[in-house]
Amino acid sequence: MKKFKILAMLLCCFFVFGGCAEKREEAQEMLSKYSEEDLHEMTTFAMDTVMQFTLYNENGEQLLTDAEQEIRRLERLFSVTMEDSEIARLNEQSGLGEVSLSEDTLKVLKRGKEIGELTNQAFNITISPVVKAWGFTTDGEKHVPSQETLESLLPLTKIDDLKIDEHTLTAELLKKGMAVDLGGIAKGYTSDAVTTLLKEKGVTSGLIYLGGNISAIGTKPNGENWKVAIENPLDTNDYVGILEVQDCSVITSGGYQRYFEENGKRYHHIIDSNTGYPADKGLLSVTIISKDGTKADGLSTALFVMGLDEALDLWRNSDDFEAVFITDDGKAIATEGAAAFFTFEGRDNDFVYETVER
Length: 358
Ligand code: ADP
Ligand code: MG
Prior knowledge:
Number of domains: 1
CATH class: Alpha Beta
Strand order of the largest sheet: 1-2-6-7-10-13-14-15-17
Number of helices: 10
Shape: globular
Structural class: alpha+beta
CATH architecture: Roll
Strand content: 25-35%
Bound molecules: adenosine-5'-diphosphate, magnesium ion
Order of helices and strands: HEEHHEHHHEEHEEEEEEEEHHEEHEE
CATH topology: T-fold
Distance between the termini: 36 Å
Helix content: 25-40%
């Protein structure tokens, strides 16, 4: 189980990056009326992961209930394991015609397709038949599927065969046996939805943790940035550094989070749809920092599949995210925007720190 790794230490910060962090002097001017007395916290389990909420507000208890209800609502739409979810209905109808869906489900499908296009299909929400063949979405035994099985399933993972019609509010999987899996994007979308809801209700200071997906609302009540640790993929009780952020999402994907071993080899849950095998491009984890949590979630999965070089090409052609990569040869690599608010602390664990320029 993933551990709650948010460090709420009181440190000074002087970092600036695209709105995700501000200079301390500016932050100080935004001192809120809230104090530790207004602190409300909740832990729950949803979307197959531990979720934790921290917020500062006089109506904290009610707001936490609202947040949890919103998460349960979206889970009932997006889950692949709940038999009556909208995604389960869409999958069941594969090859049989279109299915009416809610706006949320259509929106997340659309965002999934967009991130697929942006990443040359490294992000692929129709990867489900292959993920299932490995046993990752079921409670059953996980195992390496035969080459034959993978070859028969890969043709069912073509994103163009997922049709979305926003006018009629329908979607369709064209081939029998196709299936959508929102595991790589649902938590990001949900964190955006919950953040929006809480902000609309007046929350100015909070931190939402949806199993590895962190969304910061405003700053801490004293005006300081939130501090988020990036886990050491080789030892999740440890971390390689700390990001200081406000009002943005920090989302990590890595092969160390869900995996099994067979014949002494480790197989994880992020699949390269070119091969049908777990992605193996030299990365242990990818952390994305962005205002757009949905995109950050999709990209953390996609850039992990793409590997460092391709990921940096995409970063250089984008202006709406920054990233920190941990490589399998012991490097922590921050894009220049991320480096501005990242404190590297992995030296003692033999990580080497590098930054990359645009
Ligand atoms: P986590 O859910 O552990 O935080 P990710 O956001 O990286 O991690 O999502 C991984 C999940 O996404 C997998 O469990 C699977 O459901 C799905 N998935 C696996 N490979 C891909 C892929 N190439 N594109 C999109 N989704 C994927
Ligand atoms: Mg993801």
